[in-house]
Amino acid sequence: MFKILKKTAQTGLVTIGYPQAPARVSDQFRGAPRFDFAAWGNGSGARAAADACPTGAIAIRDSEHSRHVTVDYGLCIYCGECAAADSSGAVQMTRQFELAAIDRRNLVVTAEYALAAEGSQGELKKLHHGYWPLEEEEPARLEREARSRIHQVLGRSLAIRQVDAGSCNGCEAEIAALNNPIYDLERFGIHFVASPRHADMLLVTGPVTRNMELALKKAYRATPEPRVVVAVGACGISGGIFGRNYATLGGVDQVVPVDVFIPGCPPRPHALLHGILLAVGRMEQKGLPQ
Ligand code: SF4
Prior knowledge:
The chain is of the alpha/beta class.
């Protein structure tokens, strides 16, 4: 007993301060790529990066006088292939991970370029940015609001049921880390439950295999209102590297309505925490339990 108390005193507090304090991530951590769309104008353009992208997150579409380059962070697995293939310096890998969005369209950035007659990419004409980059104080604000909202909306705590709809278990490993003393999800009054009937939120991973379609629908119907659904990771958002094929349906929103999308492959625990807190606000918008 004395040994345990001594060890506890020696170890001290290990729980991180995020989101009140900024997240500390290792120098080796690779987050989302950042694109300088203007640098892609009047040159070789986005072709090399798009050709290297394994998930089709960078797409090029030509119309009569314009070229549209679309970057979809919902498809991105943060692999860095685009940065390695692009020689213009327009792509840089960052350590950014707070990308969760309520609207799927906010994960998409579209740039429109002039298109020369011989097919080369001209200068940047228009840029439509989605959600990113976030305001710096966004995570801390979310946390403050979420604590009071959990109390206001639910009058108690928030219960999450995790549904694995065919993931590789990378996302599950990160979700499990939320319960350890470092991330300590319970400090927000948020905990995991075994049944969707006891849950307020479904946290769904995987591209949704056809074998899991019915199970996901049943879990959704069993969750009482106002339920929220959070799609986790590139697979949960869009099917990721699996996409839509004979075995997978291409994302959670193909089966049930999704309230919050958390990009990443897999999203690190900080990113999950950020998305879950965002989802608490969404729950309030959907109304109080009857
Ligand atoms: S990081 Fe990988 S998945 Fe994301 S846009 Fe670049 S090449 Fe595509």
